[in-house]
């Protein structure tokens, strides 16, 4: 009996990757979920935080002694935190997900656009890379909505391909696994979206 159970389990394990690869990238809800799970695979906290708009790293107001004008956004990729200066000496600290090794960046820019439930147009360089490295074809465009990788809100950084955007997959918060965008839990990105205006200065540092 134990041998039979072990054989069945092994068969299921062997079948699972093939099924995931056979799933085409498209626009339906189930396909979108598969795409999200492939792009951002779950961590050990998957079951605990699955499909949540809340961050496992609670935002909080902290003392912030750096000399930046009120409203400035400072993104510290090493600390995996975004700081929004709310008054002299004070900032709201949010947990974030950042670019994986080879996709980190730094510099200064500003918010040039804001969008609610943004659509997602993967950059061609990303589509080419995923196809070349993983054999998958990302959609040229995905409509905004709960299943979209950009989540509930997006703040676009200058004319770059990078954004501060939401996600309903909180296991990615505190991790380095994106292609350079800054990811926040939906609850947190909505909070920041309501406070940060177009023209807000953004500083990204490592």
Largest sheet, order of strands side by side? 1-4-3-2-11-6-7-8-10
Radius of gyration from the alpha-carbon trace, in angstroms: 19 Å
Task: Please work out how many helical segments DSSP would assign.
Answer: 5
- SSE ordering: HHHEEEEEEHEEEEHE
Number of DSSP strand runs: 11
Briefly note the CATH topology name of the domain at 43-59 and 97-199. L,D-transpeptidase catalytic domain-like
Runs in which pLDDT lies below 50 for 5 or more consecutive residues are 1-33, 43-49
| CATH architectural label of the domain at 43-59 and 97-199 | Beta Barrel
**CATH H-tier superfamily of the domain at 43-59 and 97-199:** L,D-transpeptidase catalytic domain-like
Shape: globular
Q: Percent of residues in beta strands?
A: 25-35%
Major sheet characteristics: 9 strands, mixed
Text of the CATH class of the domain at 43-59 and 97-199: Mainly Beta
Instruction: Determine the mean pLDDT.
Output: 82
Counting helices, strands and paired strands, the structural category is: alpha/beta
Give the end-to-end Cα distance, rounded to a whole number of Å.
55 Å
Give a written overview of the molecule.
The protein is an alpha/beta fold. It has a domain at 43-59 and 97-199: L,D-transpeptidase catalytic domain-like (Beta Barrel). Helices cover 28% and strands 27% of the residues. The protein contains five helices and eleven strands, in the order αααββββββαββββαβ. The chain has helices spanning 2-22, 29-39, 46-49, 124-134, 186-195, and strands at residues 60-63, 73-76, 81-87, 90-95, 98-99, 107-116, 153-157, 163-167, 176-178, 182-185, 201-205. It has a nine-stranded mixed beta sheet, covered by helices on one side. The protein has a two-stranded parallel sheet with strand order 5-9. The termini are far apart.
């Amino acid at each position: 009996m134990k041998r039979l159970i072990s054989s069945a389990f092994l068969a299921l394990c062997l079948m699972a990757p093939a099924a995931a690869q056979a799933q085409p990238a498209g626009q339906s809800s189930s396909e979108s979920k598969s795409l999200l799970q492939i792009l951002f695979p779950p961590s050990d906290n998957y079951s605990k935080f699955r499909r949540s708009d809340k961050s496992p790293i609670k935002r909080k107001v902290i003392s912030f002694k750096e000399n930046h004008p009120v409203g400035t956004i400072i993104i510290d990729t090493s600390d995996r935190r975004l700081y929004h200066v709310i008054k002299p000496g004070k900032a709201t600290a949010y947990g974030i997900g950042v670019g994986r090794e080879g996709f980190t960046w730094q510099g200064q820019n500003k918010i040039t656009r804001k969008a609610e439930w943004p659509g997602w147009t993967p950059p061609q360089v990303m589509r080419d890379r995923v196809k070349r490295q993983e054999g998958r074809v990302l959609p040229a465009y995905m409509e905004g909505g709960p299943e979209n990788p950009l989540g509930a809100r997006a703040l676009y950084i200058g004319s770059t391909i990078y954004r501060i955007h939401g996600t309903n997959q909180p296991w990615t918060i505190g991790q380095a696994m994106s292609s350079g965008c800054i990811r926040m839990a939906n609850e947190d990105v909505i909070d920041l979206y309501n406070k940060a205006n177009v023209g807000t200065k953004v500083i990204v540092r490592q």
